[in-house]
Amino acid sequence: MADGANERNRMSTLDIPLIIRGQVIETDMQRFEGRGGGVDFRAPDLMKHLAKLPTSAQSLGDLYRISLDEIIDFMVEVVARLDFDTNPHLKAAFELSSQTSNLTPSILERVYRNFAASWTREAISRLVDVQIGRDYLEGWVPHDLGEGRVLNVRAFGARAVHVIAGNSPGIAFMTILRTALTRSDSIIKLPSNDPVTTIAIMRTMIDVDPNHPVTRHLSAAYWKGGDERVEAALYQPRNIEKIVAWGGFASITHITRYLQPGIDLITLDPKHSGSIIGVEALESDESVEAVAKLAARDIGSMNQELCANARVLYVVCDEHDPRQMAQLNRLGERILAAIQELPSNVSTLAKQVNPELQEQLAGIAMQDDFFRIYRHADERGGAVVVSQIDEVVEFSAILSKRTANLVPVASVEDVLKRITSASQTLGVYPDTLKLKIRDALAIQGAQHIVSLGMVSGMGAIGPSDGLQVERRMLKWIRDMQVA
């Protein structure tokens, strides 16, 4: 028995290397526990290599001896190598992520395949043009200020630490792509629920060209969040100029302890997302069916693991009108059915249930006057709670695993006043309503406004959480001269 237990323990332990600017380090390994009782893994003891992790500002000079087109050429070649069927690093990352991620294998595979499918040369160039402006990355851009004054502006890369999230492998890829295009030097702190995707992409870059300036300005390391021995030494202005952090209140608050003049913190903290659905959705059985399919995409894509997934859906509906309430309940029932019909590479039965959520659902199951619950036979299939009055379930903060709450509201104005800076993505139906309220939504704090059903189609081009992340990653320098 003991031998069998040891074998299972050994098989469930992953080895995660340390990569410092093209050098793969697999020595001085120590064991770390997986998040939430997940798979344990081993990674090098960072304290033994910490001195090599930071770099000097002068070292970025090699990134300015090549053109932006050369950088894009390199990234296009890397993307071409990120072919799921032929790249051994990506295949290994997929196998390991299948153990560590909350996403199921069919969804993970789609994300990995999208690297090569989505990021063509045209897409990368579009990202540069929309997010930054090519001219600012290539040289000094003059602006005539009149009276013989000329303002020249150029964007320069910075040395940064990226504390990334692990809920989607796409975050690792975007962090690397942003680093390359901004001519930055990035140290990526690996998340415990996806310590492998970043490593797979960097190993592919090393295969393409271990001495390319982009390769030589990327590092990836795992350390336990809050390890003051690492962070107090690393988070110094002499070492880094930016911290880009994904995380909740506790982790971001911890990072702020290290802020001082010379370090800029860029936060991408968790948000709440939902939907605003006009009364038009309830006009007929056909409209209910169409809207149910759109809402199901926003709820169920990526198994509701993203901040952008809808959780609370406000529907304009007279709660005192029996016909409208019957249609609202039908909408909830049809949304649950439509979630089950989503393709397996978009949404599946969850890997596991959330016990606290299931307990809360059971607690309101008998409150028919206030809530109707439509549940899949398998608890991993999700549920839709339809409030019978204008009241959001008390446990809305833990809605997950393809579980949502439909809430009737008397008017759109009743929804607008509930939007705050914690509201990230809002899917709106119909589009005519979206055009009417998008300014008000933005003023209230909403950050992504999309047509209902478009959450998974937003893509990575455009502002994120109210920020132009790429622009914030850069240092914007001015040069004044007389014409």
Describe the fold and architecture.
With 483 residues, the protein is of the alpha/beta class. The protein folds into two domains: 10-270, Aldehyde Dehydrogenase, Chain A, domain 1 (3-Layer(aba) Sandwich), CATH 3.40.605; 272-457, 3-Layer(aba) Sandwich (Aldehyde Dehydrogenase, Chain A, domain 2). 36% of the residues lie in helices and 21% in strands. The protein has helices spanning 2-11, 68-81, 88-100, 105-118, 121-131, 134-138, 170-181, 197-208, 228-234, 249-256, 285-300, 322-340, 355-364, 412-416, 431-444, 469-473, and strands at 14-15, 18-20, 23-25, 29-32, 41-44, 141-146, 149-156, 159-163, 185-189, 218-221, 242-246, 264-268, 272-277, 312-316, 371-375, 383-387, 403-409, 423-429, 448-451, 475-482. The strands form four sheets. It has a seven-stranded mixed sheet with strand order 3-2-10-9-8-11-12, with helices on both faces. Helix 10 links the parallel strand 11 and strand 12 (264-268). Helix 2 (68-81) packs across helix 8 (197-208) and helix 11 (285-300) packs across helix 12 (322-340). The longest helix is centred in the C-terminal third of the chain and has 19 residues, at 322-340. The protein starts with a helix and ends with a strand.
